[in-house]
Amino acid sequence: MLGFMFSKTTMGFNEEIRSQYHYCKQSLERIVEISRTEGMVVVPVFYEVDPSEVRNQTGEFGKAFDSLISTKSVDEYTDVPKEVDEYTKRNWKKALHEVGSRAGVVIINSKNESEDIKKIVELVTRLLDKTELFVADHP
C-alpha cells in the first residue's frame, strides 16, 4: 500500500526542488502503473487542493504543473538540463488524472492536523484489515 500527497504548498516550486518534482512525477507514473498491473493499493492525500484540480490539472495546481512541465529538468545521470518530451508530459497528465479520480483523503481548510492524520491512519487501517484471511481445511 502506498500513499501519495498532493498539496498547493508543495506545488510552489523553486529551482532547488524543481528537479525533485520531475523525479516525483516519474515515481507517480510508476506507482500508477504498478497499481494497475500488480494491484497495489494507492491512497492519495489531497492537502489544501481539490482532487478535481489534480485530475484535470486546473486551478493553482494546474498552473504550477504547467510551469513545471514547460521548464527544463536536470538529467539525473549527467546533470545536463533537458526538456520534458511530449510522451512524458502525456504520461504525467494521465497519471495525475487517474490518481485524482481515486478515492482518498481530502483535507481542505483544516484547523486540526492531528485529526487529519488520524483520519488517514483510520483509512489505511481499514484497508489493511480487508486483507483476506487463510482458513485451513483441517482445524
From TrEMBL:
InterPro entries associated with the record: TIR_dom (IPR000157), Toll_tir_struct_dom_sf (IPR035897)
Pfam families per the UniProt record, alphabetical: TIR
Keywords per UniProt: NAD
GO terms of biological process kind: signal transduction
Domain of life: Eukaryota
Record carries keyword Electron transport: no
Domain TIR span(s) in chain numbering: 1-128
Protein's recorded name: TMV resistance protein N
Organism field: Trifolium medium
